[in-house]
Amino acid sequence: MSEQHRASGVAGEALAHLPPDFVVTRPRRRDLWDTVLGMLDDVAERINLDPGIHAILRQPERELTVAVPVRMDDGPIRVFTGYRIQHSSARGPCKGGIRYHPAVCPNEVRALAALMTWKCAVVGIPYGGAKGGVQCDPKQMSREEICRLTRRFTSMIMPILGPRRDIPAPDVNTDAQIMAWIADTVCMLQNVATMEIVTGKPVSLGGSQGRKEATGRGVALITTELLKRQRRRLSETTVAIQGYGNVGSAAAKILNQLGCRVVAVSDISGGLYAPGGLEINAIDRHVDSHPGRLLEGFHAPGVDRISNHELLTSKVDVLIPAALEHQIHADNAPQVQATMVVEAANGPTTPEADKVLHDRGIVVVPDILANAGGVVVSYFEWVQNMQCFFWEEAEVNRHLKRIMVQAFQRVWELSERHHVPLRLGAYMLAVGEVANAVQTRGIFP
Ligand code: NAD
Question: Where is the domain boundary, 175, 203, 231?
Answer without folding.
Answer: 203
